[in-house]
Amino acid sequence: MKAPEPATVVVMGGTGDLMRRKLLPALYANVAAGALDPNCRVLAVARGRGVADEGFRAWAAAALAEAGLPPGPGPDAWTRERLHYQTIGAGGADDYAALARRIAALEALTPGPGDRVFYLALPPQALPAAVRGLGGAGLSRGPGWTRLVVEKPFGRDLASARALNALVHEYFEEPQVYRIDHYLGKETVQNLLVLRFANPIFETLWNRDRVASVQITVAEDVGVEDRADYYEDAGAVRDIVQNHVIQLLALVAMEVPGAFEADQIHNEKVKVLRAIRPLSAADVVYGQYAAGRIGDRDVAGYRDEPGVAPASRTETFAALRLGVQNWRWHGVPFYLRAGKRMAQRLTQIVVTFRRPPVMLFPSLHASGKIQPNALVITIQPDEGFDLAFEVKAPGAGVALQSQRLRFRYAEAFAPLPDAYETLLVDVVAGDQTLFVRADEVEAAWALLAPLLAAPPAVHVYPAGSWGPPEAARLLDSEAAWAPA
User: Which residue has the higher pLDDT, 277 or 367?
Assistant: First the structure.
């Protein structure tokens, strides 16, 4: 594929943690691989007034080395020739006017169409001021195309998401806006659409007649680390469920789009979210981790973490039971689970199929019953797919045993690109397929509004477990929370 023409990538929050750990290595990797034009310039924008280009380039070189890129002519030349810094000071109109002049000056150095990406790598509270500043300085339009990338969380409830959408749309049209959820850039998440719609063996079974349940787990073994200030105000539902988990649900449950185009895919995802029955207290269990043990380490409880209130009621775990009220999924439970300080780091989707309608082999499996077929989609850390099925064990008589067909990306392909590498290329290419549209964001917040208005009780679970025992009450008799 021909690389796009050179663009100027302006990162607001350009000396922050996201830039250091993810964006800068992803930009360099894309340029080195030829996925982005080598003349793309990166302008880091931050508040520091005493930082010049050379100081920022030294910072960037250290960040690339930290990411595992060896020093040499590649990273060294790129940081020296293509990286720049601009202060935004207090963020006043004069500061944004100076930013506009600096962008124009950089564009004059390299002939090109004047394409621009504005990446808001900023905390949620800083987004409105940045949008107003860019729009007020006339930076929502340029000589070429202009695109705005906004990190999650997009709002903290339905009202704030609508207000932020309205503000963004004052200056930027929706086709210019790229709401980023890095989970959607993972190869295994993207492959959900291919798995379903390029393999009729699965799509013909993807319905209420053949599927007994769907489980989606996003488990982290880490705690809140240095994010307590943010997490105390957010909790698991705002931090993970509203975006990552709901997006996975929409991809699993969506109907076949009319074409493999961004708007058609977004349309089907929104239909799913709007078809989910309203949540009630019986559909939800919250939890908060207490002290426990993960691997060979003893870890503190949430309330003992630095910056957490001693009597905090913030949920670090949420389990939900949802029903999609449409023809394909009526009666099929969707179980969602997300949490911190769980037994292991794991993101997984398990589609469990119905058992045979007639038991021809009673009590011949080791468990006393035939195990259901299951498609296990592992998104991290061991990306791949497993299909569980029953076979006859060797020997006299008929004894059944569960086996798996197994596929792993790492075994079939070269190392997978980081999600941010994929998403940054898509932004420059103008492909919104893996991003979130305004009505998707609002539909997800609307679904969770009852929980945010009246949070359920929070149950304690030990760090290193799979959540509070109370979560088991959400499951039917055929399901279990243990990872497949």
Answer: 277
